[in-house]
Each structure stands twice: as structure tokens, then as C-alpha cells.
């Protein structure tokens, strides 16, 4: 390559550039291949300044003619590729020029539909496209016939598929969607930041949105059921959501308001500090009515890295992370009595809870450290590029 040629790069593609909830996507953009990345997105999170060159499609020329072109493009691309989201017209031309200008060697779609929308573009340009499945994109969205058609049509055009859990790959396979180069690589956590601290033997922690998908009332009622036997223990709930008011009212009415603290949404530093102190972590994840599931919850990976014994559910990828009896205890979804009993068993054995926490930390350091997972992701992309006979990032 001549000195004037662009440095080989990876394009990281997502829906909303800079979305603060998309930790994995932001980390990939900042760190993969030594930071030799560029960003592709449909739109930008308000005020976000990308650390890397970025093409944001909805920031291209707007106006009646552009809207008409995009409306026509959706109809054409739906027929041609089974996906209305494949860039068309001036958007496609701008995308192709951006890829050439920055020497893009591979594209990583951070969600299933993103990679599938870009697969025809990459195929035409000789650029391998990979996509990640993280949760809703391989659960809830599989109930949509148009999404099934999109995924099935895109699979032969993709160079590879990543998933945060085997559970999601199995979901896809059950819907007739599979890829020969499918690899499970969780998003991972920073195990240097999330680490055990001076443990408070009486602190139980729950972290996450207070919404139906997390079944917060099951968690509260489980704590209430065991509270009399463990009068020194308290439960802290970090997060916000539409069920927070209901949960706070129930806690106050139960007489446990002084032992259940709702701390609201907090930043990562606060969450890290409380996890480092907590002995037990609770998360009762369930499958939502619309079919939405977790992939592999980041909060559980963080709790394990912080040395917490985990009490959770046999839901999505959670059993792939939490080893029954060694790093935590699991129950079936909606099993409130079982959840309370599991919590009781952990609290009744402080030595056992501490041993689970130590084992959880060991597992997290080995399997969920994001630097190790980045290395696996890069190695898979490089290997695939070699097998396809194209340059790698």
C-alpha cells in the first residue's frame, strides 16, 4: 500500500451513533483494531461527537426530492433484497464513497438488522460484512414476517455472524436462519473497573430498568419473604422505569421501606462502587409478552466481575454465564417462591455466598473480560477475510 493510501479500517455500523446504552458499540468504535475504525449510522444521539470519522445517513441532504428518493428506494430494495433499509440512491453513493475514502476492509453491524441492511452493499464492493445479534433482534423481531424475510435473504451475503449468547443463535436457527460462520462472543465488561471491594455482607443489589421484562415485583416480594429471617440485610435497587412508582408504593406499604432503597438511574462509577460492595446480586429476567428477551445481560457480567453471588433466572443466555451452585442460583421465570428460596439459601450461608462471589469473579475474568473478547472478535474477522481472499483490517 502506498503512503498516500488510507489506512485499512473497520466500519462499525449502528442505528444511533453515540447511544449511551450501547456500551459494546461505543467500545468497538473506540478500540477495535487499535482504533482504526470509522462509524456508520442512521442517526446521531443528540450532542454526540464521534471519536472517529462518521457517516450519518439522515444528516445527508434532505428535502422533498431526497424523501421521494428514499420512499422509492424502500419499495425497490424491499423487492430486490427483502429489506427496505438497504441504502439507495444518493445515500448509497455517499456510503460507497465513504467506504473507499477510508480504506474500509470490513463492516461490523452492531445489531442484526443493521448488518443485514448493509450486506448487499458490502457484497457489491467486495467488503465482508459481519453482524451482531444482541437480544431483541433475535427474539422479539423474529415475530415479524418482514424481518424473517430480511434475515434469510441476507445470510448468504454476510461473511459472518456474532451473537452474545448461544441462546440467540438457537432462536435464529429455530426460525430457519443460520450462518456457517456463527460465533458466540459476549459484549463483555471491564474487569479492571468492575472488581470486588470491601464487601458488605448485608448488601443485596439489583441493577437495571424497573420494567416488566425484569419482573421487579418478583424481586421485591422475594426479599420481603426472607426479610424477617435476615433482619440486617437490605436491598438497593439501581435503575428507573415505568414500574418504579408502583414498586416504591408496594415497598412502603409492606413496611420494608426502610430496608429497600430505590436509588434511581446512576452513572457507571456509582454502579461499580455499589457492586464492589454487594454480596448478592438479584435479577429476575423474563420473556416479555411481545417475545423480547435478553441476550446475555451486561449487569450480570458486571456483578460477576465484582464478585457477587448471582440469583437469577433460566432465561436467554443467563445459564451460559451463571453456573448453578458454583457462581449463583437460578430458577424458572416467574417462579417467585423458588426465587425467594434461592435468596434464602444464599443468605443463610455467608461462607457459601462469598465462595460463589470468588468463583464468579474468576469466571468473569476468564470469559467476560472485554479485551479478551475484542481479541477473539478481531481474530475471527481477520481469519474470515483471509479465507475469503480479501484484505483484513
Structural class: alpha/beta
What are the low-pLDDT stretches, counting only 5+ consecutive residues below 50? none
Q: What is the succession of H and E elements?
A: EHEEHHEHEHEHEEHEHEHEHEHEHHH
How many whole angstroms does the radius of gyration measure? 23 Å
How many domains, as an integer? 2
The CATH topology assignment of the largest domain is Rossmann fold
What does this structure look like?
- The chain has 393 residues and is an alpha/beta fold.
- It has two domains: 9-188 and 370-388, Glycogen Phosphorylase B (Rossmann fold, 3-Layer(aba) Sandwich); 203-367, 3-Layer(aba) Sandwich (Rossmann fold).
- It is 43% helix and 17% strand.
- The strands form two sheets. The protein has a seven-stranded parallel sheet with strand order 3-2-1-4-5-6-7, sandwiched between helices.
- α7 (216-227) links the parallel β8 and β9 (234-238).
- α4 runs parallel beside α5 and α10 packs across α13.
- The longest helix is centred in the last third of the chain and has 19 residues, at 370-388.
- The mean pLDDT is 96.
